[in-house]
Every structure is written in C-alpha cells, then in structure tokens.
Design a protein that fits this description.
Blueprint lengths: L1 E2 H9 L1 H9 L8 H17 L7 E2 L8 H13 L3 E9 L2 E11 L2 E7 L7 H16 L4 E9 L11 H4 E5 L1 H4 L6 H12 L21 H6 L16 E2 L1 H9 L5 E9 L15 E10 L6 E7 L8 H13 L4 E4 L2 H14 L4 H9 L1 E3 L2 H4 L3 E2 L9 H8 L13 H11 L5 H30 L2
Parallel strand pairs: 1-4, 2-3, 5-6, 9-12, 12-13
Antiparallel strand pairs: 3-4, 4-5, 6-7, 8-14, 9-10, 10-11
C-alpha cells in the first residue's frame, strides 16, 4: 500500500521508492537529514496548539487501519478538529496533520517547518486531498501551514502569530486528474524488478536521496590516466602586496558558529534566524608579536540566550583591534547587524565592530592567489589545504558548520555529561581551526 511519503518519493524517483520498499537496508539517512526530519515533527506538534481541543487519530507509531477507523468514528461523533486524521482510498493511506471543521466546512492543513510554501508541498498535499475526497469527505479548502518569517518572539511562543496558513486549493485541483494514473504506475513498478534510473538532479532535489550512495556504487568505475594536480601557485604579486600593505595592526581573526532553530528559542529572535552561540578569536598586536587565542562557547541552557554574553565578551576582546579579519564577510556582518537590531543597547559597539571587518577571502575570490589544488574555489576548506597542507579539517570529529550547529542543538537535550563535555571540546577544536586557518593563510600572503 502506498502512503503520502511513498507517493511523493516515487513521483520524485521511482527507483528510490522501489529501494525503500524492497531494499530498505541500503538506506542511509545522514545526521543533517534526520535533524530536519525531527524538527518537522516538533513543529507539527506545536501547530496543534493553533487548533486546541482536537482528537488524536494515530495512537501507534504510524498511521494504520485502526487510526483510519478512529478518524471515521470522530467524524461521526461531531469532532471538529482531528490530528493525524487517517484515510485509505485507492490502495493509498494518508494522515492529515490537522483536519478542522469551521462553519460546517472541512479544511485540510498540512504543517511544514519552512517559512513559505514550496513547490514540493503542493504534490504532498494534492495526494492527501485526493484520498480524503475519495473517501467521501467534502473538503472545502486545503492549506499549507508554515512558519511566519516576520514573527518575533516575546516571552512565550504565541502560536497564533508563529504560523501562517496559505490556501493552495487552486494549485492542488489541477493535479487531481493525474493522481490515479500515478498511483497505478507506482504500484505496477513496485511489483516488477528494480528499475533503472540514471542519477541526476533528482538525487539532490528537493532532498538529498537516502539511497544515493547505493546508486553511486552501481556506477561503472572509469579508469583514466591523469596528471597530478600542480600546487605551483599563480600569484598576482602587486595585488596581493596592496592587500597585505593595507592591513592595520593590531589585528584579530574572528569566526562565528550559529544555530538556526525553526521555532524561535529565545526572545527577540525569529524563525530560522541564525543565532551565534560560539566564536573563536586569534589576536595579534603586531606582525611579529605573540599570537593570542580566546573563545566563547555558550552554555546549552534553554533559559540562557547565547547572544548576550557573546556580545559583551566580543566587544571587550576586539576593542583594540584596528582590523578584524573574517572569511566571507557577508555572514559575520549580517550576524553582527542582527545582534545590533535585537539588542539596541549594544548597537553602537557592534556597529563599530562591523566597520572594522575585513574579508580575507578577497585575494582568492579575485584570484590574486590560486593553485590547481583549490579546484577553482575560494572556500576556506579548499584554500587551507592548498596553502597549508599540514592543517586539515578531515581529522576533526566536527568538521563543518552544519555539524557544529546540529551538535550544539543536541546539547540542549543531552543528559550524558561525558558526551556533553566531549561535544563541547569538539566544537572548540573546530571553531579554533577556522580562525587559525585564517592566521596561517594570511602568513602565506605576507610572504608573497
């Protein structure tokens, strides 16, 4: 039997659906995907408060025949709001996040942990409308219920302001005629041998497929002779010299790590706002003086906004620097400007920091300095091993910003003190390398 998720998976890639049904042990769900999946669940539960006093149809782990029967019982009893309302039609089972009756008319609500309606949502809710309508329940409207990007949290979460409901009925209705054929085609495909589907854009859109590694393993290995990449740099010496000579000491190198919770965790924050929780800072009084390192890593306590102490410490530790290097200035400057907006009592000092920011990516983005081993990229993950091969992110337990963000968010719910301590150590190592990398890259530029 198909489900909503199976149907949408199959519409994106028939092979992915076939593997999900017949070779599920080949499925690999990465930590990032699982994190976003879990976040969707928590947002859906929070959305139920928008329609209080509803009845839950699904009492087991997954929707099933019993939850479909329970849904019909609720409807007959005159219940106006049903969570996870379950319906079965045309060999397809779906569960509606929220089924709500208003003024005698049923509305179907699909909750999404995004801050806008996405094209992928339309296919998702179209199959639900088809099944519910096929079961004989007249649906007057269908809505995507998503987070309100303009919402700012003040004290407790206000669910009536946190969510926005957009009708997508006009987009759903034209898809109804093709759904029966789609269901028939998918069911027939599932009864046949493993389909052959070439890898392509659908492997990463709208999500990274959890069978991508399996499909990659089936690709033929093409052996070819090639020359090793040269690491002899191409350098525009005058341009690099102008960049280096413009540096005013004392200098520091600054890097933030952030979390981006879907539901605002702290006052004066918005859905999906990037909240700095950590920074690393390397400081140097003069070109030849001793390098000093400081850092900030917030406590993972839900009643403590990580930004407040971070701001105060950062202002103090950067006050003497004439140049504050960052790598890809748009990110750090945007975070500083947001903190200035959200904490106006520190706006003057934060604006002063923003004015002193300089971007260390410039020599590589403008191709003043390049090597083949950078592979045409100005990313610090490519520049660092090309210029300083003795330094690498590959040995770190936490090796990128997304992993750092997920790891810190996990700390809010972690009760294992040893694991918490180990995670904090790994976060410090990762952020430290980001600013140490900038120090070493600048040293290379200064020797040109």
């Amino acid at each position: 039997m198909l489900s909503k998720s199976k149907y949408t998976r199959g519409m994106n890639c028939q092979k992915s659906l076939w593997l999900y049904v017949h070779k599920k042990d080949e499925q690999l769900v990465d930590a990032g995907s699982q994190f976003f999946f879990n976040r969707g669940y928590s947002v859906a539960e929070l959305a139920q408060q928008f329609f209080p006093d509803g009845k839950m149809a699904v009492l087991d782990e997954f929707p099933n025949f019993e939850s479909a029967k329970r849904t019909q019982d609720f409807i007959k009893q005159g219940v106006n709001t049903i969570y996870e309302a379950t319906f079965i039609y045309n060999d397809t089972l779906i569960a509606v996040d929220i089924l709500h009756k208003h003024n005698g008319k049923w509305g179907l609500y699909e909750v999404k942990s995004t801050n806008s309606v996405k094209p992928k949502h339309i296919k998702d809710i179209a199959i639900q409308y088809f099944v519910v309508n096929g079961c004989g329940l007249n649906i007057s409207n269908v809505f995507i219920m998503h987070l309100n990007r303009e919402y700012v949290r003040h004290r407790d979460i206000d669910v009536n302001k946190l969510f926005v409901s957009e009708s997508v009925l006009d987009s759903v209705l034209p898809l109804q005629l093709e759904i029966p054929n789609n269901i028939s085609s998918l069911n027939q495909m599932l009864n046949e041998s493993e389909p052959t589907v070439e890898m392509g854009e659908h492997c990463n859109t709208p999500y990274s497929c959890d069978f991508k590694e399996y499909c990659s393993s089936l690709l033929p290995i093409v052996e070819c002779e090639h020359e090793e990449l040269s690491n002899t740099p191409e350098i525009m010496q005058n341009e690099v010299k102008v960049f280096v000579d413009s540096i005013k000491y004392p200098i520091c190198h600054l890097d933030f790590e952030t979390i981006m919770p879907a539901v605002p965790m702290f006052e004066e924050s918005r859905p999906y706002q990037q909240i700095p929780f950590q920074y690393s800072l390397h400081y140097q009084e003069t070109k030849n003086s001793e390098l000093k390192h400081t850092f900030y890593l917030a406590e993972s306590k839900i009643d403590i906004d990580p930004r407040k102490d971070l701001i105060k410490q950062m202002i103090k530790e950067t006050e003497n620097a004439k140049t504050i290097f960052v790598y890809n200035i748009a990110f750090e400057r945007t975070r500083i400007n947001e903190m200035s907006r959200d904490f106006p009592e520190y706006s003057k000092d934060l604006e002063n920091i923003s004015e002193r920011l300089e971007d260390l990516i410039i020599p590589f983005r403008k191709k003043y300095y390049r090597t083949e081993t950078m592979e045409g990229s100005s990313s610090i993950k490519k520049v660092l091993p090309a210029l300083c091969p003795e330094l690498s992110y590959t040995e770190l337990e936490i090796g990128n910003g997304m992993a750092a963000s997920n790891a810190f968010l996990d700390l809010y719910y972690c009760e294992d003190e040893n694991l918490k301590e180990k995670t904090r150590e790994n976060l410090l190592k990762y952020c430290h390398l980001d600013t140490l990398a900038m120090v070493k890259i600048l040293e290379v530029l200064q020797k040109v």
